[in-house]
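Exercise: predict the fold of this chain.
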Amino acid sequence: MFILMFNSAVFKKLEKKDFRTLLGIEAGMKSYQWVPLEMIPAFSKLRDKEVLYRIDRLLELEVIKKTIVPYEGCKIYFKGYDMLALGMLTRRGLSAIGERIGVGKESVVYEGIYDDAPVILKFHRAGQTSFKQVTRQRDTGTRDHWIFIAGRAAWREHEALVALHDSVAAPRCVDYNRHVVVMSVAPGCELSKTTVDDPEWFLDRILEQVRKAYEFGFIHSDLSEYNVFVSPDGVEIIDWPGYVTTKHPQADYLLNRDVKNILTIFNRKYGAVRDHEKVVGYVKGL
């Protein structure tokens, strides 16, 4: 087993009791913004002296943070959350993480190997840069720590990929833990980075997938040229954590926006023209 990424040195240094301490702090963060120092032994099921030693190690490795105001307490930061997710995934089949291939506002994406097959690992970062903005704009279902908001986003993407599997051209979910989703590699190239030779055919394929997703009760809600992959065999739609159901109060608005985004791209780049209302009707099966 080997891990090749920015946290590889830290991951290799962590010991079993370090992970137990991290798990204890994670458990405590469900109830506390900063987990009181005296509570961590109970959460981690380690002796007091052992916990103090482990906290010093974890602080040195920069996987947790500590405060002394208004009381002594600790919390996990994203590096620590990465370690917990990687620890579980490596026990289940993840053997390598390679190059970073994408960075977005709310995620970082790496190549990887899982059960000897190439995969994509998506580390959700929702809430890392602006906790208030994320809780205001997204239905996270929680007002917890940033890490739990990221975990919720990963769970939603996992939920969508599992539900759409075999019905919609979307990545296959290979595994999932905390804020990390492991998925199959999308074939081809991102639509924004290529020029297709038959734009009408590719536009039809994209709208066909939007319609299939709608039939299963899903609206992507953030569809653009950056989350559609195209290849000679067709298209694949990625990035599903922000999906809404067709029963959502803003379902019509979000579907119209998705359709408008795709039609605008093909009109601007290829001169392809479609009637917006007719396309929306097609997607809805009207």
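Check your answer against the key: Residues 1-5, 130-143 have pLDDT under 50 and may be disordered.
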